[in-house]
Design a protein that fits this description.
By secondary structure, this protein is of the alpha/beta class. The protein folds into two domains: 127 residues, no CATH class; 245 residues, Metallo-dependent phosphatases (Purple Acid Phosphatase, chain A, domain 2, 4-Layer Sandwich), CATH 3.60.21.10. It is built from eleven helices and twelve strands. Helix 2 runs antiparallel to helix 3, helix 2 packs across helix 4 and helix 4 runs antiparallel to helix 5. The longest helix has 35 residues. 43% of the residues are buried. The N terminus is likely disordered. Keywords: Hydrolase, Membrane, Metal-binding, Transmembrane, Transmembrane helix. It comes from Streptomyces humidus. One of its GO terms (cellular component) is membrane.
Length: 406
């Protein structure tokens, strides 16, 4: 046997890079994060000088320990192989409660305590108890408000978007965007119907759904998704997959949307014609599609535009905003995306911006390409939206040369 341990690398070989210390530490985040989420509020509210009566501190500690233990267990039973909706609701709710408590324990635990100390307000115990009641009060208010925000029918956000290559005959084209409906463990069939009723009041020429329809298979969430079949559009209803479809048998969702009368734009396009002018409406699978292992599923922009006249303006549907790098390189006029939820529960948006080039709204990329990122129509996981309101978006496309009045 030849010892090759010290043999030089041959051409074309590459030595596997050793993982960095940061990369190794990242593996422990799923274990560390839940502990911090519950341990920090417990410490700030109970152990930083409050000197509560004897039953309060141990009882409060037990509550936080139960949160730490129950949250991951419930989420594992709810979103793992068992797919138990009641467990998912408990786990998701505890995640939201823990996140809000953690955020405001850190902020008020530092800032309010510092302000009270500088102002010379009370003794150390009085300041500590003031911080505790402030954190609990702010958390309760934000959770109640955030729950109402998550469960309500989204407000319509209207925006005029000027596309330099849009023909005069297409000026005023009304495009409605819904995305990230995330039908899930909480039954939202009535909410779904009311959302679709709101969409129908907008008299859309084109209605788009940019993915993440649900958490769960099409078979399990069919009743919640069924109202999508009632959506009306003058020209077309189009849909592309999101990353959550690939956690839940994506092909089943493609088939159901087709059954409901939506046209799945899986790396293909259609032509929308009005007033003698034409718009290319294209769509790609989510960027996670290829790693799903499903045959034929991948994000393929060249395939989506195959056969389209390059001189025509292009509206592209892509679930994740970060696809805009490829869209801009191809000179796409407008990309519609979702995925970010606008952060959903502040200040999570700071983490979203690490992964995505845009959080919400209209942004410019390259010399031609515009990206509109929706904050989403529904919510994922925790049934709360804090400083990140949901939306149904009405985009009115404008030509630089609108038709002249007769």
């Amino acid at each position: 046997m030849t010892d090759t341990s010290n043999a030089p690398l041959t051409e074309g070989e590459a030595q596997a890079p050793r993982p960095s210390r940061l990369h190794r530490l990242m593996r422990f985040i799923p274990l560390i994060a839940p502990v911090l989420l519950w341990a920090v509020p417990c410490w700030v509210l109970l152990y930083t000088g409050q000197h509560w009566p004897q039953p309060v501190t141990p009882a409060g500690t037990v509550v936080f320990v139960l949160g730490l233990v129950c949250m991951p267990l419930a989420m594992a039973r709810g979103h793992g192989r068992r797919q138990q909706d009641r467990a998912a609701i408990v786990g998701d709710t505890l995640l939201g409660v823990g996140w809000v408590l953690f955020t405001w324990s850190v902020l008020l635990g530092v800032l309010l305590r510092l302000a009270l100390t500088v102002a010379g307000v009370g003794e150390s115990q009085d300041r500590a108890r003031t911080v505790t009641w402030a954190v609990l009060g702010v958390t309760a208010v934000l959770l109640a408000w955030g729950y109402a925000e998550a469960r309500r029918v989204p407000r319509v956000r209207r925006l005029d978007v000027r596309l330099p290559r849009l023909g005069a005959g297409l000026d005023g084209l009304r495009v409605v965007l819904v995305t990230d409906t995330h039908y899930g463990p909480l039954d939202r069939a009535r909410w779904s119907a009311r959302v679709c009723e709101t969409v129908n009041t907008l008299e859309a020429d084109l209605v788009c759904h940019t993915g993440d329809i649900a958490d769960g298979t099409a078979e399990r969430r069919r009743a919640q998704a069924a109202p999508l079949g009632t959506v009306r559009a003058t020209h077309a209803r189009v849909y592309v997959t999101g990353n959550h479809e690939y956690y839940s048998e994506a092909q089943g969702w493609v088939d159901l949307m087709d059954e409901l009368g939506w046209e799945p734009l899986r790396n293909r396009h259609l032509l929308l014609e009005r007033g003698g002018d034409t718009l290319v409406v294209a769509g790609v699978d989510d960027v996670t599609a290829e790693s799903s292992g499903l045959p034929g599923h991948r994000a393929h922009l060249a395939g989506a535009l195959d056969g389209a006249d390059p001189d025509l303006p292009v509206l592209l549907l892509a679930h994740q905003p970060k696809f805009v790098d490829r869209a801009a390189a191809d000179g796409i006029d407008l990309q519609l995306s979702g995925h970010t939820h606008g952060g959903q529960i502040w200040p999570f948006h700071h983490l979203v911006r690490i992964d995505q080039p845009a959080l919400a709204g209209l942004s410019h990329h390259g010399p031609r390409t515009l990206l509109y990122t929706s904050r989403g129509t529904g919510f994922w996981g925790p049934p709360f939206r804090v400083f990140a309101p949901s939306e149904i978006t009405l985009l009115v496309l404008r030509s630089p040369h609108p038709p002249t009045a007769p």
